[in-house]
Amino acid sequence: MSRAIGRDLGPGDEIVLTLLDHDANFSPWKALEEKGVVIRAVKFNEADCTLDMADMAAKIGKRTRLVAVGYASNAVGTINNVAEVVRLAKQAGALSYIDAVHYAPHGPIDVRALDCDFLACSTYKFFGPHMGVLYGKREHMKKLRPYKVRPNSDSIPYCWEWGTLNHECIAGIKACVDYWEDVGRRANRAVTTRRAAILAAHQAIHQHERKMTGKMIAGLLAIPGLKLYGISDPQRFDNRCATFVVRIEGHTPLELATKLGERGFFTWDGNYYALNLTEQLDVERLGGFLRIGLVHYNTMEEVEQLLAALREIAG
After folding, report:
1. CATH number reported for the structural domain that contains residue 23 in this entry
2. What is the rounded distance in angstroms from the CA atom of residue 17 to the CA atom of residue 89?
3. What's the structural domain count of the chain?
4. 102 and 119 Cβ atoms separated by less than 8 Å
């Protein structure tokens, strides 16, 4: 997409990115600097790892051609106000590109309500196979010139695909959506349509994840020497998903992840491709963060067990 959109950009055209994003929604756009495109990066507030929306508004101007932003941070869990970002982009006559990969399992996505120009995610995030999904407004998809193999048709969607489709993954996506529908029908027996069932699933998942988030954050903040990054105010939990990154004094993230793994907990260490974030917070040179992720099949008991393990490791 960056190469296709970049074909129509030239010296002096501007793209607005954010320092909170996964690098997949940063580096491909930044590569267009070789054509003279100007990259403007929006800062984030280090105290709670939320986007600086005043800086966002200031950086979007008459030369802005595209604004790319993540729906939610895959590191600190912040849910961005993407509706406002789309509005600001539209006001400037720029395109909006939303990376919804990390947000997808945590909340419903309605591209019509957002009115974004493009939105990308991957079904592995919402419990399907590892396959990318791209939404784009037809007017743009018809006008842009994608890089493709010559035998591929010039019609949509074939010109945007690589050739023979991955039929196994497509079948898996169907099963994945069936699963979401089943979760919703179990949560609300009154629903009558698939869409209503999927929305009911999201509502039930949100309620469960919010309870776990409250317990997790309260427990993390009580551990001596632990620093939690991101939103920690219970009144603002709707602005974050159940993804947490921490550092504990005297332990590297790799050491923490290894010790938790020995106790049966699967966590991550490093930067998770959120490189701008770890660099600005000055933790990249120190091994990044320990990341803990919760989804709907986790339980309050597991949260308690994880917190007990962290307390033991922290000493």
Report:
1. 3.40.640.10
2. 12
3. 2
4. no
